[in-house]
Write a structure and sequence with these properties.
Blueprint (H helix, E strand, L loop, with lengths): L1 E7 L9 H12 L4 E7 L25 H11 L3 E8 L6 H8 L9 E8 L4 H13 L3 E8 L2 H9 L3 H6 L2 H25 L1
Length: 194
């Protein structure tokens, strides 16, 4: 079984992110031999990273914060990821970046895809996250789902978000196909290296 975790990258009041997160999660659940999980950052209220040693420091003890330990364990159990990310001021949300920064070896050599929304459909947020992912030794896949502003606006107007998401079935399928291919390849490679 392959574990793919969908990470809800916003914790704001009235947020949009849980709608596309649950949408892409349902698409993943339709795939054979995929255990799709939702990791909502509201369930992991971590402080801003303030430790002396970074997560990449060899031999460092586990961080003492209980929520960070739960978050790290959830990342470790995952074989691949989909980040559902807003775009705030040309980049990802602070809460998502902070969650990323609390972990290092548990991200390594795993595939990651992106579903984004916001100004420019979240493309600039995804671009920054791709660079961060590479530094964490994650393998960002090329295919992404960029949600048009009209669908985001429908959320805030009380309109039909599902109709807007339904128009993105083809890119969602491509993202999942690519993510699962890379996840399988990297999982095999990790197993042969240990």
């Amino acid at each position: 079984m392959t574990v793919i975790s969908v990470i809800v990258g916003s914790t704001r009041e009235g947020r949009f992110s849980e709608k596309p997160a649950k949408w892409i999660l349902q698409h993943l659940k339709l795939r054979e031999r995929v255990d799709a999980r939702l990791l909502d950052l509201r369930d992991f209220p971590m402080p801003f990273f303030d430790q002396v040693a970074t997560p990449a420091t060899p031999g460092r003890p586990p961080f003492a914060h209980e929520v960070v330990q739960r978050w790290t364990a959830a990342v470790a159990q995952s074989d691949g990821f989909v980040f559902v990310t807003p775009e705030y001021n040309y980049g990802p949300s602070a809460v998502l970046k902070n969650a990323i920064d609390w972990v290092y070896p548990e991200w390594n050599r795993k595939a990651i895809g992106f579903v984004s929304y916001g100004s420019a459909m979240g493309a600039r947020s995804v671009q920054q996250l791709r660079e961060t992912a590479i530094e964490l030794q994650l393998a960002p896949i090329r295919s992404s789902v960029h949600i048009p502003v009209a669908t985001l606006w429908a959320h805030y107007q009380g309109g039909d978000v599902d109709a807007g998401l339904a128009e993105l079935e083809a890119p969602a399928g491509m993202l999942i196909d690519d993510l699962l291919w890379w996840t399988a390849a990297l999982k095999t490679a990790r197993a042969s290296a240990s």
